[in-house]
Design goal:
The structure is a single chain. The protein has 18 helices and 22 strands. The protein is α/β, with parallel strands linked by helices and about 500 residues long. Strands 4-5-13-14-15-16-17-18 form an 8-stranded parallel beta barrel, surrounded by 7 helices. Helix 1 runs parallel beside helix 2 and helix 13 packs across helix 16. The structure holds inosinic acid.
Length: about 500
């Protein structure tokens, strides 16, 4: 006899709808905040929050350093994937931590190269302004597209055509973007090289970027005002990986595993807790009450919930294990509440795998998640570390699971003997930059909270009313019984009536 058979089917997020609460001027979208705890922390200075309830999945095709920087600037966080060498993951964390908004690490040129060669570099990089530095990295001058004519000066050197140091406005040791902006405005220049005391070039500030860069009100940082950097770890090489990440001052780590209810994960979390008590660890993934308790007992400060629902996931088909994400969140959130009553500790929950649309996000939050982790959503964006492809006249980006053959090449060489894959490889439609997409998603989440009559995620947890809907209701909730004309992919051939 099995230990347990549940005859009630488990539910997915798409099967629920939210009922409205009382909407007032206090719950207007502008009054709503989506700030949410990233992890539980006893220490005041380590109380990390996200300003949007979304993080990107720890996957090779999703979360590299560019995603890490841009998403933190927009209020979320990207879990830098661990299916890469320790050195390259640590370098990504370093880059996020040392990122200074608006301060660009420029491509430099030596003074002796010819204008003709410089022009090739210009075409290759797309940059039109280059700082010129000597062999010790000291700033010598600037060359811009206005300083040469390709036909007249092809054989001149960059040093001969550059604007020399004496005629360039420079900033010394500046790290405040507003100060850089003030100098640029007063000098009527469009670019400001930043030098150290010895004259070495540290970075450049471009006027065209400045207003963009000052415009990130939701940015999440550490106590030293650097961007928050978070990373995935695994249960195999954590003894080497975690110290390397800590050296680069990673803020939070998350154990990456499709089945978190395991003694390997317990050992990993306990080890980090003993060696680095100030470093919060997120555990997961679990889908049962027992799994949640097990990880929290080991020291997990947040728990990822979900198994088998990811868009690239074939775990359910391959192993027959999994649970609808809505049911998993409900069960784990009930247990989290019991645990909170017993201990006073609130463990944030992360809904992970199969969260595809804004309505999924809101339902996951309403059921008890504090934020969602998404792969497919972010894989479509410019900041994902993949190249765009044109397929059947559509611009696409590749997206593959961490358990797919493609990602496992990395794992297999090192750890796994597994004979089967748990994920697939595919394409998703390219959709532009994060800043072209996230604002709309966030406005929709806020509109949804407004309709529910709540001002934040904590209130949503207490006041949300949800209802399971029938397949017919789902049909009714979509466009039906009309031929859609605007905003559709179908080509419509209009003809004049006879
Ligand atoms: P998505 O947002 O639906 O694309 O799901 C992303 C999530 O799927 C990740 O955060 C992981 O939890 C999970 N995942 C990533 N790679 C695999 C895989 O290869 N097999 C199964 N699940 C995966």
């Amino acid at each position: 006899m099995p230990k347990k058979i549940i005859f009630e089917p488990s539910r997915t997020l798409a099967e629920f709808r939210l009922l409205p609460g009382l909407t007032t001027k206090h719950t207007a979208p502008d009054e709503i905040t989506l700030r949410t705890p990233l992890v539980y922390s006893e220490q005041e200075e380590k109380k990390y929050y996200l300003n949007i309830p979304m993080v990107s999945a720890a996957m090779q095709s999703v979360s590299g350093q560019q995603m890490g920087i841009e998403l933190a600037k927009m209020g979320g966080a990207a879990f830098i994937y661990c299916s890469q060498s320790i050195a390259s993951q640590a370098e990504m964390i370093w880059k996020i931590k040392h990122y200074k908004a608006g301060f660009v690490e420029p491509r430099t040129l030596p003074p002796h190269i010819k204008i003709r060669e410089m022009y090739d570099i210009r075409k290759e990089t797309g940059y039109s302004t280059f700082p010129v530095v000597d062999s010790r990295g000291r700033f010598m001058g600037l060359i811009t597209k206005w300083d040469y004519d390709l036909f007249l000066h092809a054989d001149n050197t960059v040093g001969e055509r550059m604007i020399p140091l004496e005629q360039v406005e420079v900033g010394r040791n500046i790290s405040d973007l507003k100060e850089a902006n003030r100098i640029l405005l007063e000098s009527h220049k469009s670019v400001l090289p930043i030098l150290d005391d010895t004259g070495r070039l540290i970075s450049m500030v471009f006027r065209k970027d400045i207003y963009d860069q000052l415009d990130y009100p939701l940015e999440v940082h550490d106590e030293k005002k650097r961007l928050l950097a978070v990373a995935a770890i695994n249960t195999h090489d954590y003894r080497d990986r975690v110290p390397a990440l800590v050296e680069q001052e990673v803020d939070v780590v998350s154990v990456d595993s499709s089945d978190g209810h395991s003694s390997y994960q317990k050992d990993t979390i306990e080890w980090v807790g003993r060696k680095y008590p100030a470093l919060p660890v997120i555990g997961g993934n679990v889908i049962t009450e027992a799994g949640f308790r097990y990880l929290v007992k080991a020291g997990a400060r947040a728990v990822k919930v979900g198994m088998g629902g990811g868009s690239i996931c074939i775990t359910q088909e391959q192993k027959g294990t999994g649970r609808g994400l809505a049911t998993a969140i409900i069960k784990v959130a009930e247990e989290r509440e019991k645990h909170r009553k017993e201990t006073g500790i609130y463990i944030p929950l992360v809904a992970d795998g199969g969260v595809t649309s804004t309505k999924d996000i809101t339902v996951a939050l309403a059921l008890g998640a504090d934020y969602v982790m998404m792969g497919r959503y972010f894989a479509r964006m410019e900041e994902a570390p993949t190249e765009k492809l044109v397929v059947n006249n559509r611009v696409m980006k590749p997206y593959w699971g961490e358990g797919s053959a493609r990602a496992r090449e990395w794992h297999l060489k090192r750890y796994y003997q597994s004979k089967f894959i748990e994920g697939v490889e595919g394409l998703v439609e390219y959709t532009g930059r994060l800043r072209d997409n996230l604002p709309e998603t966030l406005v929709k989440i806020k509109a949804s909270l407004s309709t529910c009559g709540v001002r934040n995620i904590a209130e949503l947890h207490q006041k949300a009313q949800l209802e399971l809907i029938s397949a017919l209701s789902i049909r009714e909730g979509k466009v039906h019984d009309i031929m859609q004309t605007g905003d559709t992919n179908d080509t419509i051939d209009y003809q004049k009536p006879e």
